[in-house]
């Protein structure tokens, strides 16, 4: 048994109150099915005492050999952290796409910027609004509440069908590179984490320009994956992980920072760009967006990390404390009133 495992078992055994060495080992046997050797037990107790995680229980009757020990506040915090890490094993397999999008929309990160996108759209009661890459349609009802007509569009037929069934709103199966709408028929267009995936964002911008009326508005919420910053005791592993995501996972990884320029080049005015920085403090929540286990396995297979580094990378992320951020750019682009569209 590894030293840290023995210490963790001792901390767990003391969770319900002070015990002396023999009773600690009996408690360990009840939960783990085996006792620690005398050397491991007293070694673990003395190391934990040295770290201030356990201390003699002054209230208990002590003799030299039967000295009851108890958790300190720091020991209880360490035990909680270990238990959290054990229960937060990262997902090994990918969730369904619809489930993934539902989770992302409901996450703290999603809630941090989606209202901002809605505000930036500035939807009026006579407007027709087009949500390009609507996914499961999570945001269609909020837009529909403010508009005359909302249309979702997605290139994945399952997504389009799910969005239509869930919302009862108009949803089209189609490609954002070739919109099935006449020119100057739409007042608002939105993308939320879609342009990062498309073949050619400039074609999609040109299509948005074509279908929007003069004075119409495109609002995009798109990430910049080069800003993915994950704290780790070995920062070089975080750099390797981000490089892998940028180079191998996302088709247009830095689209968020480029959109102000690409939109101007497409003929839009760009009055506003807002960087939003969702911050993740809980590895389990972050994993639901990032899929650490799967992505790390791919990074190892692609040679961005050694297998040992991959283990070390995941181990520290699971154990916490955890911190990750990625910048999500909200860009507002307006068709000039004179009408280039
Ligand atoms: C990350 S999801 C975001 C979904 C939704 N916007 C949301 O906020 O929940 C990206 C969506 O874009 C769609 N998509 C990707 N490429 C597309 C394209 N060329 N045309 C239309 N939809 C596309 C995908 O099928 C997927 O549903």
Automatic annotation (TrEMBL):
A single GO BP: methylation
Tagged with keyword Methyltransferase: yes
Keyword DNA repair: no
Cross-referenced Pfam families: Methyltransf_11 (PF08241), PadR (PF03551)
Keywords, sorted A to Z: Methyltransferase, Transferase, Ubiquinone
Signal peptide positions on this chain: none
Entries under Gene3D superfamilies matching the protein: Vaccinia Virus protein VP39 (3.40.50.150), Winged helix-like DNA-binding domain superfamily/Winged helix DNA-binding domain (1.10.10.10)
Domain Methyltransferase type per the UniProt entry, residue ranges: 130-219
GO terms assigned for molecular function: S-adenosylmethionine-dependent methyltransferase activity
Chain ranges of the Transcription regulator PadR N-terminal domain: 10-80
Entry protein name: Ubiquinone/menaquinone biosynthesis C-methylase UbiE
Taxonomic source organism: Phytomonospora endophytica
């Amino acid at each position: 048994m590894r030293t840290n495992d023995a210490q963790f078992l001792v901390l767990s055994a003391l969770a319900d109150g002070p015990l002396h060495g023999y009773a600690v080992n009996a408690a360990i046997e009840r939960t783990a099915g085996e006792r620690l050797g005398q050397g491991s037990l007293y070694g673990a107790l003395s190391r934990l005492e040295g770290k201030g995680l356990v201390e003699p229980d002054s209230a208990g009757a002590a003799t030299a050999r039967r000295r009851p020990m108890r958790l300190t506040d720091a020991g209880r915090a360490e035990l909680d952290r270990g238990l959290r890490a054990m229960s937060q094993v990262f997902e090994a397999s990918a969730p369904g796409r619809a489930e993934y999008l539902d989770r992302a929309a409901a996450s703290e990160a999603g809630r941090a910027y989606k209202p901002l996108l809605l505000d930036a759209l500035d939807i009026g009661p006579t407007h027709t609004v087009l949500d390009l890459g609507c996914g499961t349609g999570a945001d269609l009802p909020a837009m529909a509440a403010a508009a005359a007509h909302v249309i979702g569009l997605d290139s994945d037929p399952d997504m389009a069908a799910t969005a239509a069934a869930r919302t009862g709103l108009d949803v089209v199966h189609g490609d954002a590179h070739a919109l099935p709408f006449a020119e100057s028929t739409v007042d608002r267009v939105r993308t939320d984490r879609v342009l990062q995936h498309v073949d050619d964002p400039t074609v999609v911008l040109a299509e948005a320009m074509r279908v929007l009326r003069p004075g119409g508005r495109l609002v995009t919420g798109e990430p910049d994956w080069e800003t993915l910053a994950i704290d780790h005791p070995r920062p070089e592993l975080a750099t390797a992980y981000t490089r892998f995501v940028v180079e191998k996972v996302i088709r247009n990884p830095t689209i968020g920072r480029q959109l102000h320029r690409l939109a101007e080049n497409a003929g839009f005015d760009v009055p506003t760009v807002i960087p939003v920085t969702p911050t993740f403090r809980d590895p389990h929540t972050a994993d639901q967006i990032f899929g650490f286990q799967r992505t790390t396995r791919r990074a190892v297979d692609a040679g961005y990390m050694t297998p040992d580094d991959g283990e070390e990378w995941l181990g520290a992320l699971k154990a916490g404390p955890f911190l990750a951020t990625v910048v999500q750019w909200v860009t507002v682009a307006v068709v000039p009133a004179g009408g280039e569209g």
